Amino acid sequence: MKEYIQSADNIVDNASIKEKGGHSRSKVDLTGQRFGKLTVLQPADNVDGRTAWLCRCDCGNEVIKKTVHLRSGRVITCGCVSMKDRLTLIDGTCAEILRSKTIRKNNTSGITGVEWVSSKNRWRATISFKGKRYYLGKFEKFEDAVKARKNAEEKLHDT
Question: 46-50, 65-69, 88-92, 149-153 — which is least confidently predicted?
Answer without folding.
Answer: 88-92
